[in-house]
Amino acid sequence: MNRIRQEETIYGTVSHSFLHNTLKLWAKCGSVHTKRVSTITMQFIPDSTTVTLADGKKIRLKEVTPEDRDRAIEAFDQLSINSVYYRFWNDLIELDESTLSRLTNTDRINHIAWCAINPDKPDHPGLGAASLWRSPEDPSIAEVSFTVLDAHQGRGLGTILLAVLWVIAENIGIDIFHANVLANNSRAIHWLVDLGGRIVREKGVCEIDLLLDLDENVGRERRNDLKHWILFFRKEFS
Question: What pLDDT sits at residue 198?
């Protein structure tokens, strides 16, 4: 597999330990809260939607399912060395079965993931993806992760995918997005802060919280782009 090293090309990441513990604990949870959330999500979440980017190109946004395993493998193979490192915090050569399952086994309650694909080439790898994992300790908090292929960064895909997760999250009782980003991934840190995130801890790993409050005055242009897409998806998903 041929990878090209590039500078700071990946967004925030979710730690494997957090992800594993979340799925394990919530899989055992049969609470009334979980059942109530399941009913809500099934009523309003579509399978997919199509949007037009600022460059005029259309993209299809779809929910990630286990059927997307091959798509995830092909997309991974197109990531640069740095993108892989920033996303997975190590130099993975390929996605193993365990990682693939964690990425694609969604449940619409505690693990939600969406990806962006080219509608004219539905069998090609995705252009990017975003996931949230609800915290087993506090169901109002979810850790989020974003990946955009190197060739498609700078097109606004990360912000659009964040807006999708935001609208879904605010309808299932999630109030805060939490992101863990390697401290040397300045591009991802600046992106999240410009969108309204606040750095809550910075020691090797930069921890950022994003309050899901659209009325909060952030005063940054990138936040306006996020707000535009959140309002769009609120209408689209209603």
Answer: 93
- Structure tokens given for 208: 């950022």
State the Cα–Cα distance between residues 159 and 155, nearest whole angstrom. 9
pTM: 0.80
Q: pLDDT of 51-93, one tens digit each? A: 999 889 999 999 998 988 888 878 777 677 677 666 765 665 6
d(CA 229, CA 219): 17
37 CB neighbour count, 10 Å cutoff: 20
Nearest to 13 by CA among 110, 85, 72, 79: 85
The DSSP symbol for 13 reads B
In the chain, where the domains are located: 16-236
Q: How many CA atoms lie within 13 A of 91 on its CB side?
A: 5
**Any idea what the Cα angle at residue 125 is, between residues 93 and 42, rounded to 5°?**
110
- Is the CATH number 3.40.630.30 carried by domain 16-236? yes
Token representation of residue 87: 């996303």
Phi first, then psi, for residue 223 (nearest 5°) are: -65, -35
> Whose structure tokens read 């498609």?
152
Q: Which residue ranges in the chain fall short of pLDDT 50?
A: 1-42
Q: Dump the DSSP string for 131-191.
A: EEEE-SS-TTEEEEEEEE-GGGTTSSHHHHHHHHHHHHHHTTT--EEEEEEETT-HHHHHH
Q: How does DSSP assign 40-91, residue by residue?
A: HHHHH--SEEEEE-TTS-EEEEEE--GGGHHHHHHHHTTS-HHHHHHHHSS-
